[in-house]
Amino acid sequence: MTEKINKWVTGKGILIPAALLAAVFTISLVAFLFAGNQEAKRVLFFPDDMTRKVRGESRYLPVYGTDVENIELLVRELLLGPEYLLYDRAVPRDTKLNTLIFDKGKLYLDFSIDIAVSDDSGSVHFEDAINLIKKTVTFNFKNVRTVNITVDGQNPGSAYYSGRADK
Fold it and tell me: What is the per-residue pLDDT across 16-73, written as a single tens digit (0 to 9) for each?
């Protein structure tokens, strides 16, 4: 029995399992390198904490199948805030993205009311936040021609619509 094991380990018997292992490793390596791990360099814009000038912060974000998924990831990264400690947030901390629609170069973003009304003392003014969002999206996605932003379904600055006609 030990002779068979010695022959298998030292002889030609090891060649076939080693070749199979090498083939599986090679296929796995090729699949890893060419599938699903693509990243794109994106630039997110934030105000400088000291000068209030707009500064770009580079991040590598995963690339998904559609523009909608990639734009949504970018906007959600912007909502998280800067990585660099000397930059301020572009939007108040509690702001949420409610809806994102992208169609024929037009992007529609709807945010929670927190973007306009916040107790966050370090956040930028509402108009500046809107401009930073637009700048970040249009800089990174050249196929976005217009960005329309609403707050809880309402156009900023327009009269509140409750959904019923007052008589």
Answer: 677 777 788 787 777 666 765 689 999 999 999 888 899 999 999 999 889 999 999 9
Whether residues 78 and 141 fall in one domain: yes
Given this model, what pLDDT does residue 12 score? 57
Q: Which position has the token pair 């947030």?
A: 89
> If you search the block for the tokens 């409610």, which residue do you land on?
98
**Both 43 and 30 in a single domain?**
no
Is residue 167 in some structural domain? no
Tell me, yes or no, whether 44 lies in a domain. Answer: yes
Pairwise pLDDT comparison (39 vs 10), residue with the higher score: 39
Q: How far apart are the first and last CA of the chain?
A: 98
CA distances from 45 to 29, 93, 145 (A): 36, 16, 18
Give the C-alpha separation, 98 to 108, whole Å.
11
Q: For residue 103, what is the DSSP state? A: E
pLDDT at 149 over 70: yes
Within 1-145, residue ranges assigned H as helices are: 2-10, 15-34, 67-80, 126-140
Answer yes or no: do 99 and 18 share one domain. no
31-47 b/e (C-beta count within 10 Å ≥ 16 → b): eeeeeeeeeeebebbbb
